[in-house]
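Alcohol dehydrogenase-like N-terminal domain-containing protein
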Amino acid sequence: MKAAVFRGVRQPLTIEDVQLSAPGPHEIVVRTAAAGVCHSDVHFYEGLYPTPTPVVLGHESAGIVEEVGSEVRYVKPGDHVITCLSVFCGHCDYCTTGRPHLCDREGTRREADEASRLSQNGEVVHQFADLSSYAEQLLVHEHAVVKVREDMPLDRAALIGCGVTTGVGAVMNTAKVPPGSTVVW
Ligand SMILES: [Zn+2]
Ligand SMILES: [Zn+2]
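Structure:
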């Protein structure tokens, strides 16, 4: 598949062939329909945040499930999904007490002795934010996506993954405005 590969600070991303590993039991393959350019992606491009390279950036996306691992029950091929920055394990103390954003994410990533999710001619290509959506396909943990209605345009649904969530979190968690409130700003 084609992916936009980031190889160094302020170097333009290059469209290259990158290989996806086969999905593990709890992993899924998603065909990317849309991917936003978040300012965080730009920060990595500009070198303000470090990241190992080569890497495929992109973390605000939507697409259609193509393939699922043997233990995946949440989604099936054909489902429309948005990607989620905060992949969670689903069974640690944080996850089971309603705080999956604090999860240590054990078991949601590949171990060092496993094949990397992304590679190029046998060399590791790093996965950004457990997603890497500047690519034709994503290989992610099943808890890194959220299903959306099929009548929602995917180019708009993609923005929920980071931009919308960041704003909604500020309103509901920081300003503590309850859902349904009427506000001025
Ligand atoms: Zn973002
Ligand atoms: Zn957890």
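The longest strand covers residues 27-35.
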